[in-house]
Amino acid sequence: MEAHSMSGHVGLTGEDVGDHDGFRKHQNHHQDIIDVLQQIMAITDENLEEAQARKHALNYHKMKTALFDVLCEIKEKSALSIQGVQEKDSPDSHLMRLDNMLLAEGVGGPERGGASAAVVAAAAGGSPDDGTLEHAEYKEKLSQIRQIYHAELEKYEQACSEFTSHVMNLLREQSRTRPISPKEIERTVAIIHRKFSTIQMQLKQSTCEAVMILRSRFLDARRQRRNFSKQAVETLNEYFYSHLANPYPNEETKEELAKKCCISVAQVANWFGNKRIRYKKNVAKYQEEVNVYAMKTSGDVASVSSVASSANSPATPNSAFCYTPDGKF
DNA sequence: GTCGATGATTAACT
DNA sequence: AGTTAATCATCGAC
């Protein structure tokens, strides 16, 4: 602050470089330099009060406001129009994508991540209650990431606002002695915010990556794979082998089987897809299964009554046990 | 640690 | 849209 008032003082006096002829010019320059040097030396002799007083006097000089306005106007007109520096669109949209993702993962928002994590888990797999152990671990790790993220974000925001207000105060202070329009302050603030937002973006990016890694480790459907319960497999196999001639359950049947097996319709479709192809690939290997389920559905009704009765519900008409182990679909 | 079984994913096809 | 076929990744028994 003091340094600035000093330079201002020197600049004012050093400005009266008249346009004389060439011979005198050299001498004048020389004289100027000596003057400036003397003034600089004089400054060290000045005490702070004197300097402040002079600054005060300058600030409240009756011509000051008028001159200042003119200076501002000149600057506004001559300044290289910085407003052409429109920030690029891509980082903004990129930031928005990251924000959306963090929000979706339950990291970005103010709420706890539990609910959305459950949604993610349900969408990925469908196994409703198993894997709670890993799920808990996942949630814990996610909340860890969340904590770190929010702590960092807060730190950045605080640093940003601190720095911004500092710069603004500085500029406001300086605007009393040099022409700085509020617009310029605004622009500077915008620049600061942009700089900080790139840091923020890096934070968000790395958080996203961490979440992705975590997700792939805990919630990826393939990793989370659990074998269906014995009963579920029984039900599915029963339908399959009792409809071996055409093992293609329609949507309704799939829904029913899904409900019975406590799995999703998609999982039923997966199961039938896998079963069909694997059966077809090696009929001999499944011959035993064919026999077992043929026995079950035709003979031993009592032992599998609950399963069989549900499999033979009205929506799945299996009046004919037309299993034809010829491998043709 | 290996290996077959198994559920999920994917591209290509109809 | 729904399937097939190949493939991936994990499970579970040994």
From TrEMBL:
<feature type="domain" description="Homeobox">
    <location>
        <begin position="219"/>
        <end position="282"/>
    </location>
</feature>
<feature type="region of interest" description="Disordered">
    <location>
        <begin position="1"/>
        <end position="25"/>
    </location>
</feature>
<dbReference type="GO" id="GO:0000981">
    <property type="term" value="F:DNA-binding transcription factor activity, RNA polymerase II-specific"/>
</dbReference>
<keyword id="KW-0371">Homeobox</keyword>
<dbReference type="InterPro" id="IPR050224">
    <property type="entry name" value="TALE_homeobox"/>
</dbReference>
<feature type="coiled-coil region">
    <location>
        <begin position="139"/>
        <end position="173"/>
    </location>
</feature>
<keyword id="KW-0539">Nucleus</keyword>
<feature type="DNA-binding region" description="Homeobox">
    <location>
        <begin position="221"/>
        <end position="283"/>
    </location>
</feature>
<protein>
    <submittedName>
        <fullName>Uncharacterized protein</fullName>
    </submittedName>
</protein>
<dbReference type="InterPro" id="IPR005542">
    <property type="entry name" value="PBX_PBC_dom"/>
</dbReference>
<comment type="similarity">
    <text>Belongs to the TALE/PBX homeobox family.</text>
</comment>
<dbReference type="Pfam" id="PF00046">
    <property type="entry name" value="Homeodomain"/>
</dbReference>
<keyword id="KW-0238">DNA-binding</keyword>
<keyword id="KW-0175">Coiled coil</keyword>
<dbReference type="Pfam" id="PF03792">
    <property type="entry name" value="PBC"/>
</dbReference>
<dbReference type="InterPro" id="IPR001356">
    <property type="entry name" value="HD"/>
</dbReference>
<dbReference type="GO" id="GO:0005634">
    <property type="term" value="C:nucleus"/>
</dbReference>
<feature type="domain" description="PBC">
    <location>
        <begin position="28"/>
        <end position="220"/>
    </location>
</feature>
<dbReference type="InterPro" id="IPR017970">
    <property type="entry name" value="Homeobox_CS"/>
</dbReference>
<dbReference type="GO" id="GO:0003677">
    <property type="term" value="F:DNA binding"/>
</dbReference>
<dbReference type="InterPro" id="IPR009057">
    <property type="entry name" value="Homeodomain-like_sf"/>
</dbReference>
